[in-house]
Amino acid sequence: MTTQTKMESVTQATQTPVVHIGGNRTGAWLARYALEQLSVSHTFGIPGVHTTELYDELNQSEKITPVLCTHECCGAFAADAVSRTGNGKIGCLVVVPAAGVTHAMSGIGECYLDGIPLLVITGGPRTDLKFGYQLHGIDQQRLVDGIVKRAWKVTEHADIVPVIFEAYKTAITETPGPVLVEIPVNLQLFSQHVDDVPVFTMPAPQPPASDRDLEAAVQLLCSARSPGIFAGWGAVDVSGSVQKIAEILGAPVSTTLQGLSAFPGNHPLHTGMGFSRAAVPAAENAFAECDCLLAIGVSFGEIPTGSFGCPVPENLIHIDISPMAIGRNFPAKVGIVGDARVVVPQLLTRLQTHAQDNRTRRLEVEARIARDKSAYREEWRKHLTGRVNPLFFFEALRSRLADDAIMTVDDGNHTFLAAELFEVRRPRTFVSPTDFNSMGYAVPAAAGAKLANPNRRVVSIVGDGAFLMTGLDTITAVNLGLDIAYFVFDDGELSQISQGQEIPYNRKSCTTLGDLKIKGIAEAVGARYVAIENNDQLAAAIGEALAPGQKKPVIVDVHIDYSKRTRFTSGVVKTAMKSFPFRDKARFVVRALMRKVTG
Ligand SMILES: Cc1ncc(C[n+]2csc(CCOP(=O)(O)OP(=O)(O)O)c2C)c(N)n1
Ligand SMILES: [Mg+2]
Questions:
Q1: Is residue 437 in contact with ligand 1, taking CB distance under 6 Å?
Q2: Distance, CA 562 to ligand 2 centroid (Å)?
Q3: What are the pLDDT digits (tens) for 536-592?
Q4: Contact indicator for 506, 539 with CB cutoff of 8 Å
Q5: Strands (E) located in 256-307
Q6: Given ligand 1 and candidates 408, 439, 489, which is best to mutate, with the most ligand atoms within 8 Å of its CB?
Q7: Cis (ω within 30 of 0) for the bond into 17?
């Protein structure tokens, strides 16, 4: 029997054909067999008494490498990055019940809200004992309810393979997300007779969009005066088609934060992240007159909309895999529930035959974007203090990286600086913890990205506060000999929050960090160390950090200048204030003024 939290009853193995086993097998053997049939290349976690048998099995696998991390949260972030960057691979966790799962929950939640597939395998207390109060004894299905698509507890050997297959299919179909399978330790350890196990078959592709919906979308786009495109993570695998659609329409393209890599930053129609007042001027201006918006694979969440402050026109065509997202925050005139990988090429084919010549519009749009981008960069270029200028940093880094290099970022001011000032050029080369928005992501995610892409350069941009959370996981990269460059933006503060405290509170409450000696961490874990104190050192220091042929990671202490606000931060503060009730807005303003006077 198999129990599960959500919805359905027990799932029977319906897959055909089968492989005949006809002998005794342990649950650990069966779990390894199932994982080997899937796109699992690595598992992440820390073994415990409830998983040692499975770890021993995985250790013998020729297809899967079990990876030890320093904390299950790091394991979950690493696994998440495998799914985001691994070209069809799925990230997989193997963790102990209860404590391993709770530690991993930030990463599981990140996958849940960002729509990233993740397979969590956990041990469980023995089901063949009469005793209660067993070690790690907790109802895990209840624990993770709310951050997984579904959870299963397997109670028979025969269910292990079909349930893992079903869990995997659940993780990758419809809106992708995390799933959890608990395999009690007694099943893993003890063997039982197994007749047949199913052969894995991929689920059917998502259905295409209807002719009617496509026609309605084409009509709106072709009759628009100033169409625009908003692309999210859901569009990341159809970047080429989105480019062609943008070129046919002469439409500017904005992306979400998570979907920054869905459209090349060096394409002349690329504007920036979002298009509200919290976006860079190129995006805000290009969409100011937008009368028809084609939104692809976006949910119009808080970050890319600048706290829901972007001007979405009445003529919204919204394509997303999640029916819940369509029209949830902004009403859609044409809503298409579907996988962008299916629907966008369909739309492109129609537009290629229907659209008129929009070359003049395209040239005008491109010229304005180029002007606005260059003016914004000039603003940053002029902002000189003694510390490292963020624009100079990102330009120097970009010039040293191939287009397919992968960047992981964390959550903080550095994220938005990267979004505004670093040119992302290829799909799935920029990964960020977006909607769950968990700090501590970038360092472990870099290890996952590097393991999934051993021949590509991986760099990580991380705030000093986030580095304090998971920076010791750099030892995982040291142990695995991974050549990753971690750029720690060292400003001594939880800046994204302290900047937000500045105007309304005029004081910093719990946002000042101690004096972190990053060099000491590098020494402790055995990583290389490079410091960058000012703009003059940038080129040589980045060159040293990215020197070829290294067999270990490097931690780069960047004395970054945070004295100029991003457009994102200044924009969302204004929009958020606007949404406050009048009385509270007045209270905030009066308090801010009083504190300005009294200090
Ligand atoms: C787990 C978690 N705790 C708290 C926050 C709230 N938060 C968002 S950004 C931020 C500041 C991050 O500081 P740092 O890593 O130094 O980056 P910086 O903003 O200075 O670039 C905080 C505390 C969060 N997003 N996640
Ligand atoms: Mg900081």
A1: yes
A2: 9
A3: 999 999 999 999 999 999 999 999 999 999 999 999 988 888 888 989 888 888 888
A4: no
A5: 270-273, 292-296
A6: 439
A7: yes
